[in-house]
Design brief:
Elements: E1 2-5, E2 17-20, E3 33-35, E4 39-40, E5 44-49, H1 55-68, E6 82-86, H2 91-101, E7 109-116, E8 119-121, H3 129-139, E9 143-147, H4 162-179, E10 182-188, H5 197-200, H6 206-210, E11 213-219, E12 228-235, E13 244-254, E14 261-272, H7 276-284, H8 288-308, E15 312-314, H9 315-324, H10 329-335, E16 341-346, E17 351-356, H11 358-362, E18 405-409
Helix pairs in contact: 1-2, 3-4, 8-10
Length: 420
């Protein structure tokens, strides 16, 4: 490694110097995954979407899986702590019950506040990155959950200016990299109409640029059951061709000292034929009304066809019959949820069957206000394989002095801080 003077070349005119390191001196390492193929460890991941579709439920579900060691990834089988920074909801009334309903180990979820001489303040980026890194290493934290990430940015930073926002996000990304901790932050969609989820994230493009992965969420109105779809919209460190996942929100009762509290809980129902891009494209397209009319017509045809076949038929037969009617395969797939048709494997060798379920069309489930809950079992298929690895040892060095962090386990009583 060679250090060369920067500036005009005259000695003493600059304290900066250029450091050149040969690539051969840099140790190459594999990518470790907090959630296999979806959330990389040591990086920032964004979960954007519109309001009221369960983004916070997803974050609570992730936290619960980490604290129980049940999330497919490098921490599978190892319960790890989570630091949860939330600013829009009450811990007593919302966040605590959400985590409890999600099945989280409440002793391993920590609310984070900044303690100062005058009291408590909110966690602020980039100011508190160094102090946060100290606590991550001390406790072995596997996940920083930010609900939403925007609320952690210092007030003086213009989050709509790329250069300004990077002054907060790049130190956070460096902190995640040196500690091996995953940072997962929620983000909101703006009011624009676009099929590209990255273009809809409120604020500067720096949010999606600095994040190594983006998992977008959208409600599928055509499904008829209030379900939402989760898709991988960005994945710089891994695969992008991951199956989209579908989930619903169910109601759950949480016991408290003052009587029961009622929240929602997230339940994955399997993979989705429609992606978030498909859903956003429907909403953004100028021919949306025509598209919906076409899907309605195809859904009616599909119901009639399967009824004639006794309620179910092999997928090749459905596709063949649709082609005879001039129905494109993509349109048929998008009309399937609207028709209340489910797919399942049957027989030996297994083959895909399309089955009509009248209950799906006559009695759709009523959506529940977004809360949270633990998933009993992850979808059986999809990118849920296991990658077991060990976090790299962080480099040594002194952290920049910062106000001390006050970490409160979610099970603790007493101080209700302002940070979360």
């Amino acid at each position: 490694m060679n250090a060369l003077p920067a500036g005009d070349g005259h000695p003493g005119t600059s304290t900066r110097s250029i450091v050149l390191t040969p690539a051969s001196a840099i140790r190459m390492r594999p990518v470790y995954w907090t959630w296999t193929d979806r959330i990389p460890a040591g990086s920032i991941t964004l979960i954007p979407g519109r309001e009221g579709i369960g983004k916070s439920l997803t974050l609570a579900w992730l936290s619960a899986q980490i604290t129980r060691g049940t999330l497919p990834g490098q921490h599978l089988g190892q319960a790890r702590p989570v630091i949860y920074a939330a600013s829009e909801d009450s811990w007593a009334h919302t966040i605590g019950p959400r985590l409890y309903a999600a099945g989280a180990d409440m002793d391993l979820v920590y609310r984070v506040d900044i303690q100062e001489e005058t009291g408590f303040d909110a966690l602020t980026l980039p100011r508190d990155c160094s102090a946060l890194a100290v606590e991550i290493r001390r406790l072995g934290v596997a996940l920083i959950a930010a609900d939403p990430l925007l609320s952690l940015i210092a007030a003086g930073i213009d989050t709509h200016r790329d250069r300004d926002l990077r002054t907060a996000l790049e130190p956070l990304a460096k902190m995640a990299d040196t500690t091996g901790c995953a940072v997962v932050g929620l983000a909101h969609f703006n009011k624009s109409a676009s099929p590209d989820a990255l273009n809809l994230i409120t604020g500067s493009r720096a949010f999606s640029a600095v994040a190594r992965a983006v998992i977008s969420i959208a409600r599928d109105d055509d499904a008829g059951d209030g379900s939402c779809v989760m898709s991988q919209s960005k994945n710089n460190l891994g695969r992008l061709d991951l199956p989209s996942l579908r989930y619903i929100v169910e109601s759950a009762e949480v016991p408290t000292d003052e009587g029961p509290a009622y929240v929602g809980r997230l339940v994955f129902t399997g993979e989705s034929d429609r992606s978030v891009a498909d859903i956003l494209g429907d909403n953004a397209g100028t021919g949306d009304a025509d598209n919906r009319t076409e899907r309605d017509a195809v859904a009616k045809w599909l119901i009639a066809y399967l009824t004639e076949q006794g309620g179910e038929a092999p997928w090749p037969d459905v596709r063949k019959a649709a082609r005879v009617e001039g129905i494109a395969e993509r349109t048929l797939q998008r009309a399937r949820p609207r028709a209340g048709v489910v797919t399942e494997l049957a027989g030996f060798p297994a083959r895909s069957m399309w089955r009509l379920t009248l209950s799906d069309t006559t009695a759709p489930a009523a959506p529940v206000p977004p809360q949270s809950r633990q998933l009993r079992q992850l979808p059986e298929r999809g990118a849920t394989g296991v990658t077991v690895g060990r976090l790299a040892q962080p480099p040594t060095g002194r952290d920049t002095p910062s106000p001390p962090l006050a970490l409160f386990p979610a099970s603790a009583n007493g101080h209700e801080g302002t940070a979360a």
